Amino acid sequence: MSSTKDSPTDDSDRTPWDELSTARQRVVLTIAHVHGPQTFNRPDLCDDVAGADDVEDVIDDKDRVLTSLDYTRLLNDLTEDGYLVKEFQGGTNPIILDVEYDSDRDTRNAAPWGNASALHTLVDQVCEREGITRDLLDEVDNEYDFNEVKNKVNGVVGRTVLQPYADPSKYRFTKEGYSLVFEKVEAARDLDE
User: Fold this and answer.
1) What is the DSSP annotation of 130-192?
2) Integer angstrom CA distances of residue 12 from 16, 17, 81, 167
3) Would you give the distance in Å from CA 110 to the centre of its chain?
4) How many CB atoms lie within 10 A of CB 169?
5) Which of 56, 64, 79, 114 has the lowest CB atom count within 10 Å?
6) Is the CB of residue 165 less than 8 Å from the CB of residue 97?
């Protein structure tokens, strides 16, 4: 689903900078520093920030930003504040992937979330491949709790073989929001030099 809201038409639609919480200010500064005005995938943001060597040139605490990025709500709040636009709502039509799928050996590479029959096929092929029995699922509600099945199989195997996946949410700055935040990023860089 694409966003129909483009960007605020004037500054009155955006929460004033001084009214943003410290966490929101840190996150939005970090996003501007790491991604600039381009669209970014929500799940990639943490890795991108963790991999950036110069984040603390702009913000005071990289670890705090990384902790804050664990919460999707913060990006949604920045959207409501008028700094970001959600271009795509991710998380729809999730699947469970068999990350060790081999087309010469296996029947399925994925199971749509909620399709117990397809999940059972994935579990059967992992068990056969690993030389283990399905007894590992005796105490699991394997008709309805896909997370519990995934966790149990991965735990018994000792590595991740079943992995959930869904298209990620995508965000970008509003034009006005980026202009304001970029000025703050530049000022922080100048102070650091």
Assistant:
1) HT--GGGGTTS-TTT-HHHHHHHHHHHHTS--EEEE-PPPEEEE-HHHHHHHHHHHHHHHHHH
2) 8, 12, 10, 33
3) 20
4) 19
5) 114
6) yes
